[in-house]
Please model this.
Amino acid sequence: MNIGLLLFIPSREVENRILAAVTAAGFDITQAQARVLMRVGPDGTRLTELAEAAQVTKQTAGFLVDQLEKAGYVERVPDPTDGRARLVRVTAKAEEAVPVADAEMARIEAEWEQHIGKRRMTQLREALEMLGEITDPYR
Model:
């Protein structure tokens, strides 16, 4: 099995489990919406940047942001650096889902550590962080 697939399968599992935990806690959100939402920066993000980071078209990102806005997870606000532009910013409602997602992530990491051992889990994290240095354009 190639390394891309070996990385993708656990990543997909993390996404699926976190989404399941968040939706079970009463947050009505889809995987596509979550992928856009988790890319909104702390001070807000322009729609074009969200589209690029989520690897979707600007139209798709706009549609997903419209849905998120209607559900109360994001708001559009003026960009203080450019009066013509708008920023997408998360709301308090979206921030309420963060502890749910964080708790599920902690459970996943604990399960993985139990399965592969503490030393390997530490090595895995270190290796992935190092790979992020050369693969993450948003770092």
Observations:
- The helical segments are 3-24, 31-37, 47-54, 58-70, 92-95, 98-116, 118-135.
